Amino acid sequence: MNHTAQHMDLIRSQPCLECYLCKTQGVNLYQGLRDRLFTAPGIWNVKQCPNPECRLLWLDPMPLKEDVGRAYADYYTHGESARGDTFLHKIFHAAKRGYLANKYGYYDRVLPVWTRMLGWAAYFYPGLTAEFDFSVMWLAASRRGRLLDVGCGSGWLINQMRELGWHVEGVDFDPVSAQNANSRGLLVHLGSLEAQKFASGQFDVVTMSHAIEHVHDPLELLKECRRILKPGGQLVVVTPNTESLCHRIYKDKWLALDPPRHLHLFNLITLQHLVGLAGFRKTDAFTSTRGASGTFIASRSILRTGRHTMGGRQPNLLRTWAEIMRVLEAVLLQLNPHMGEDVVLFAET
Known about the structure:
- There is one protein chain.
- By secondary structure, this protein is an alpha/beta fold.
- It has a domain at 13-72.
- Helix content is 33%, strand content 20%.
- The strands form three sheets. It has a seven-stranded mixed beta sheet, sandwiched between helices. A four-stranded antiparallel beta sheet has the order 2-3-4-11, with no helix packed on it.
- β3 and β4 (57-60) form a beta hairpin.
- The chain is globular.
């Protein structure tokens, strides 16, 4: 093995020349990338599989498992976003409650008519419903049971799902994120999913939001998800889409490349193929505009300055432009279903 470390502050890596999925020799897509969000050391390249039926993207060289944790020393999931209390935020959250009640059956108590009307009104703003769908990972209230969120970070999802009546747990390899979540009364296990040794058939639903792109062996992770799901259980995966509008525009400045943390990046075809290899019997996938405005802002910042500060306050004009781009992407998604920022995949055991 050809390790490339000479100092403890560096992230050791090894060459990764072949496609993880089809073993085709990769071609160089982007070269000389650095961490644009935080302070992880190293210079990284991105390869692409030339197989037109695959097109997987991956890091070459790829960080060693033993060292990849150094890329998360100041990662954004260490904190939790503040919740707004302005009039517009209150209207937004009321519309969200109405939408989740109307579409997914949450909020068993009777909601005011105006709240449900705001929920229906959300359909008139292209892309907004994708944000609401994502907040419950497209899961209906009728499926409520035991849910495990893999790569739960700060625990925002399991906290929300707990409030909506789910029995929730999380797993994350980052000790700071796990400690923060546990301090808020959430049950978060530290380490990899495999290390938890959950009993087979233990969960009704397993979710992974922007987690699978961070792992060295995503197939083994998916096999473990399948093992711990009950018969008829559901897996929900959300991950950046390499065929998104933002990637097409910004190329190597695209936020979701995120070297050296994003090891493998997928599209609709590659993710469905991977889940099939893991033994799931039924899959469905589409792309979503969820998070598009933030991705456009960050990618533009990387283009202009070489960096982006996560959570930084943005000028109103820039935020307006980003919302316009999100609406544009939502409209284009009706013409090309592959252009959304995220791939969203459902699979059943």
